[in-house]
Amino acid sequence: MKNLFLTLVFAATATTAFSQDLTTPQTSADVGSTPIKQGNWLIGGSIGSLGYSFEGEKFNININPQAGYFISDGIAVGLGVGAGLQTVKEGKNIWNYKVAPFVRYYFPEGASSTGRFFGQGDIGISGTGATAEQNSQTSFAFGINAGYAHFVSRNVALEGMVGYNYSKSDLANAQAQNGLGLAVGFQIYLGHK
Question: Which InterPro entries does this entry report, sorted A to Z (predicted)?
Answer without folding.
Answer: OMP/PagP_B-barrel
